[in-house]
Amino acid sequence: MATTSSASRVAYRLNRFGRAPRITKSLRKDRTTHLPIPHVPALTTREFAPNRLKDHYHTTLADDLMYMTYTHEPSGVGKKPAPPSTPEDTVRLEKIQIHTFIKESLQNKSALLSPIMMLRALTGETTKGGGQHAVEGIQLVKGRKAVGGWIRPGVPVGAKVDLRGQSMYDFLNTLTEFVLPRLRDFNGIVLPPKSSSSTTPSTVSGVVSFGLPPEAMVFFPQLEVNVDAYPMLPGIHIHFVTNAKGKGAQDKARALVSGFQVPFVRR
């Protein structure tokens, strides 16, 4: 009798969980892909491993920068005092932009395929990757106005990608650990002369930029393992975009970038 009851319970469990649930409401379909749209919101991935550079900024670098970049300006009659130096207004890295210019794409648009593949391998960025709607992936750079009769408005001339969050720190880690130490001719980002003006648009933007030649691209581990897959490896321009604005913004940005082991040199 006990054996019969146990067998019936097993059969009940198999029948209960072995069948697919009954569809009570049909799903709407996307007009473009004709795939069903789930009722739940889009899934969003999160950081799946500790990030060394991000932890270094929050535990060490942010406090040092708050003291290093503080400038005391005494308030006078009718003059607004300088804002206090707090963790909220400490200079921080907001994004890293990588772009490349392909002159051959003006005559042949297929020349952009190799740079797009290169940026995709370097960054791993895709449009709305990981459920993040702010992630735009690899974008085409198009001409805005005619230049010398050979660049026309709307014609693709290159590609770019914006890195934020964990992918930004991952690229920065690869750059400082694997690429820059292997460049023999790279002593650091060249600083402007001391006599240069501190009020130019570039000095108040808080952006640090430099370029890598095509010969340096093979030092990236993502490209080094399969260099033959890329017919052409162009050079890239790297822009470290910070939240620093106003007078002395670029000096604050340089202090931040140097804290991530990116060297600078003055000629």
Automatic annotation (TrEMBL):
Keywords: Ribonucleoprotein, Ribosomal protein. GO terms for biological process: translation. GO terms for molecular function: structural constituent of ribosome. One of its GO terms (cellular component) is ribosome. The keyword Metal-binding does not apply. The keyword Membrane does not apply. Pfam families: Ribosomal_L5_C. Residues 156-264 form the Large ribosomal subunit protein uL5 C-terminal domain. Belongs to the universal ribosomal protein uL5 family. This is Large ribosomal subunit protein uL5 C-terminal domain-containing protein. It comes from Candolleomyces eurysporus.
